[in-house]
Amino acid sequence: MAFRRRTKSYPLFSQEFVIHNHADIGFCVVLCVLIGLMFERSPGALSPVLEGVVGKTHVTAVALGATRSSASKVTAKTAFLFILPQYNISVPTADGETVHYHYGPKDLVTILFYVFITIILHAVVQEYILDKISKRLHLSKVKHSKFNESGQLVIFHLSSVIWCFYVVVTEGYLTNPRSLWEDYPHVYLPFQVKFFYLCQLAYWLHALPELYFQKVRKEEIPRQLQYICLYLVHIAGAYLLNLSRLGLILLLLQYSTEFLFHMARLFYFADENNEKLFNAWAAVFGITRLFILTLAVLAIGFGLARMENQAFDPEKGNFNTLLCRLCVLLLVCAAQAWLMWRFIHSQLRHWREYWNEQSAKRRVPAAPRLPARLIKRESGYHENGVVKAENGTSPRTKKLKSP
Q: Would you say 312 and 324 are in contact if contact means Cβ atoms under 8 Å apart?
């Protein structure tokens, strides 16, 4: 019978302990918040034991019930602050009233809660999916790190594309491009739009501590920090500047391209001869950059510039001024130009390596054929390596056997 291998124990709250148990720690935090939802009661509710008390203890029971119910109400209210989006407001419509949301400082608490949720999901995907696949592929340390990165991002980008596409279609942003800049500022957001942005910010914020938890190599940290910070700046900028509709369309385009890229990397790690998806991604990448720049210039440079309300009013969420529009356009164009420059640089490097390999194969001379060995036949012929005379006798003298 094989005994189970004992897992190495680490000192409590040490560095290795936190790294190996960070998902469990996050689960405990989430569980504490969820337990807070179980104590919600009405302000005047009493426990069954206190309801049966009469006579002299009736006043005491009422006081205890009120104290407990108020404490339970505070607990549930605090738990909802972590779980649900805040700053809801009823907006009258033709059919009645709809609930919309705007942003505020309490969103940071909600984002923090979903950071812990994302850390737990990250660990589940890593342990039950990616680790099992990577063991079968027998990858090196460098490829193993990139495989884990692409595996996590493939799942995230795929789910984000589906979710974002659903939001864009149901809200009508895709069929009506003028809605990207009409009625600006878009201060009040539907529930699914605000929740989508909170989850996106939570995911990219969770990617920062994951660099430490996953023990990413020092050579890979600057590259990953670059795109994490780019996503945070663009998503937070669209959310805070009330450009949420334009941000949804741009994220849909960007995530679709990134999903194709990381899927191509996974297929490449499985089979190094499979590079067809990289060619498809290279074609889609340039088209996506063109679409993003076109939509940004159309919505910000032309759409918002023609709006009547162009006063800087942060209290009302209006940032439609010439300076703000130029800053946003400059940020978007600079990011797209930087991504395009990196893409061209990497493609030229790959092509250079490919042509160097091809030229090296051509320079290798073919092995010369050895000329056939000429055998001079003075008389007779060869048979089994022995020269025999024409009459079939061997030129060697026979040894006489001794009597």
A: yes
